[in-house]
Amino acid sequence: MVRPMELRQLRYFVAVAESGNISRAAQKIFLTQPALSRQIKALEEEIGQCLLERQAHSIRLTPAGEAMLHEARELLARVDGVVERVRTGAAGGRLRIGYAPSLASGLLSPAVANFTQVHPGTRVELQDLSTGEMLAGLEAGELDVIVTIAPRGETRGLTWTPLVRSPWRLAVGLKHPLARQNRVTPAAVAAEPLLIYSQSDYPEYWETVTAWLKEHGLRARVAGEYNGVDSLLAAVESGLGVALVAERIARLFPARTRMKVVSAPPGDLCIAAGCRTDRASDKRLAVFVEELRGAAAGMVDGG
């Protein structure tokens, strides 16, 4: 285990290496030059290697010094990270998360579980919301982070971290004629009554679907708008129409509908974590977003 004195010596060594001059480094860390020189000498004696070539007005790292600088930076970064996480966790507080269940499935649970291990004093609040409600919550400062579809255009004042990309599928009823086809064309989609998420609650979804049909010279025959995946797929199951949904939703409802591959589909949906740009540097928030990224990477690695 590294003793406090050794950590201090490593910090002194990094300061000298980055300054290129012992005198400048001593001024930077508020230490006298002789005292700093003694600390560096003690570190060299501890490891049995010469780290610096001392010249008239500067220093040069030896090969051992170059290796030590790399290792010292990594070790100190890890130590500082541990200290910051412990301090933040001890401070308590809360983390308010907005999410769409169909999109956050497989991401949120492991991320929250890992986050609370690091920050046991933080109260995590989860809110199942529409995209519109999530964006409004961020803007009003009522949410800290959201998990939803990343907007296609620029969103001023928000920072997005991509997590997962999901292709599109066409949801049709079990007895629908399209259920027997391997692949469905855009024209076949446009010919059917289209069930769609509410434009006011899910503007990005609405824009993506309608723009895709327009690119093919087609127009959507919207037969119903819905405020959630359960009501949308219930309508599909009842034979009221068909719906374009993310492939991730197909895994949640394997028996209720048939999910068909669409030819020339819209670009994959990007599921992302969003937060206010003025909060992006918040340490606790950054830890949670990193846990989301880890959960997303685990899903990809695990197939």
From TrEMBL:
Span of the signal peptide: none
GO cellular component: protein-DNA complex
One of the Pfam families matching this protein, by short name: HTH_1
GO molecular function, one term: DNA binding
InterPro entries in alphabetical order: LysR_HTH_N, LysR_subst-bd, WH-like_DNA-bd_sf, WH_DNA-bd_sf
Stretches assigned to coiled coil: none
Segments forming domain HTH lysR-type: 5-62
Keyword terms: DNA-binding, Transcription, Transcription regulation
Claim: Transport is one of the keywords in the record: no
Family: Belongs to the LysR transcriptional regulatory family.
Name this polypeptide is given: LysR family transcriptional regulator
UniProt organism field: Horticoccus luteus
